[in-house]
Structure formats: C-alpha cells, structure tokens
C-alpha cells in the first residue's frame, strides 16, 4: 500500500469517527436534557461522578492486565462517557464546554512537543521527557504558587492517589539530588521503619502505628521506584497468585475450611505453594 492510499483510508476513517463523535455528543445532550433526560444523569455533579470515574479507570486497568482487546475498547468508551458527562456538566454550570476541553488538550499537545510541531527534530527519550517536564512546569508557574519544592509538591499531589503522589515526590526530589544510592540503603531504612512500627504497636498508640505503617509503605514504594517496578502491577500479580494458592487450600479443606486451625492453614498453604510449583499432585 503506498502512502497516498494509506492517507486516504485514514482520512475516511477519521471522517467516520467524526460522525460517530457528533452522534455521541447528541446522545449525551439527550441524557442531560432538562425535560426528557435521564433523571439520574440530570442530578449528577463533578463530585458525585468521582466514584464512577475511579471504577471505570480500575476496570480499564483490569482489561489491560487481562490483555482483552474487546474489554479494553469497551472500558475506554466508559471513560470517554465520563469525560463527556463532566464536559456537559461544565457547560450547564457555565464553567467550560467540550470544545474548551478539546482546545486545551490540543494546545497542550502542541506546546509540549515543540520538536514535532515547531520544528521536525528527532530527540532521545530522555530529552523528550525533560522538555515535557520543563514546559509543564513553566505552564504552571504563577505569582500565587509557592516557589519551594516541598510546597509545589504538596499542591501537585493534593488530589492524586497516594501511591502516585509518592512516585511523583520520589522522582522530583531525586532530580534535586535527594536520592538513594543503592538498594542496601533502602533496606536499611526499611528495617529501621519496621522496628519503629513494632515499638508503636507495643505502645498501643493508634496514631503512631498509622504513622509508622505509612513510613514503611512510603519506603517500599521508594524501593519499587528505584527498581523501576510498577507497584500496582506487582500487587495485581500477587493478588492473583494468592487466590490461586487459596483455591488449592479450599480444595484440600473442603467443607471443613472454617474448622481449620492456623497450623492447618500453614500446612495447606505449603501444599498449595508446592502444588503450583509442580512438585505434588493437585488433590489427595
């Protein structure tokens, strides 16, 4: 296929997509119509839709891990619906509309990729990321925003999921020289935090226990960052591994699972681990 034919096919596909998008805009406006719209949709706000955005995002992530293209496509549609609904709510509240959302996104894409849109220039991955971060930081600069690293980070992570916030903190402070040199340093810090949690547990102070547990979690996330491991992905795999092992425990315990002692469960757990390693038969 030559480049001209390929461009023609892509152009036709884009035209079809635009028609579908126009139909979607019409459908969402119908949902939100004050007279004939959906009663549930009409009472929603930016804030009330937050749980649904979180849910749809989680389901999209699950579809990615499952490598199910059909589900990925479906869940992307659900996320797009959230974008459309928030845009319509913005329009109703005279805050912004869908066109503003799209124009701002186009502006951001063009502004943060000058090596593509201003001049055709090949850059390395590292340089492209640095350009992105520099431009992003310059866009956010304003007289009312504090100049210190810590205060800026507090603003940036305010509404982020905590694990994402920790990752952002670690990356930013590392750029300013505050970083781990090796994993031994992190393990030493982790051991220190674990001992402090043990002491907090002895003191029976709930606030101290919570603080020390947070310190351990923060250090573990620093370790995952240092090792370039996605903690969410690692935890997802561990969840599945646990359930696979527990299914074998269930098979061996049968109807008596609630009667098992802690020692029984430890024994069955070892059987499950060995079974999944292919060392023993699956059942008695």
Question: If you had to describe this structure to a student in words, what would you say it looks like?
Answer:
The protein has 284 residues and is mostly helical. The chain folds into 3 domains: 3-96, Helix Hairpins; 148-231, MazG-like (Helix Hairpins), CATH 1.10.287; 233-276. The protein is 74% helix and 0% strand. It contains 13 helices and no strands. The longest helix is centred in the first third of the chain and has 29 residues, at 3-31. The chain is extended, with a radius of gyration of 26 Å. Mean pLDDT is 88; it is low at 142-146.
SSE order: HHHHHHHHHHHHH
Ends distance: 60 Å
Number of domains: 3
- Give the count of helical stretches: 13
Determine the fraction of residues in helical runs and give it as a percent range: over 70%
CATH class of the largest domain: Mainly Alpha
Give me the Rg, rounded.
Answer: 26 Å
Indicate the overall shape: extended
Assigned CATH superfamily of the largest domain: MazG-like
Summarize the biggest pleated sheet.
none
Proportion of residues in extended strands: under 5%
Mean pLDDT across all residues, rounded?
Answer: 88
Number of strands: 0
Give the CATH architecture of the largest domain.
Answer: Orthogonal Bundle
From the 3D structure, determine the CATH topology of the largest domain: Helix Hairpins
Low-pLDDT parts are: 142-146
Q: Structural class, from secondary structure content?
A: mainly alpha
Write the layout of secondary structure elements.
Layout lengths: L2 H29 L7 H4 L7 H17 L2 H24 L5 H14 L2 H4 L7 H16 L8 H9 L4 H14 L7 H21 L2 H21 L4 H23 L8 H15 L8
Helix pairs in contact: 3-4, 8-9, 9-11, 10-11, 12-13
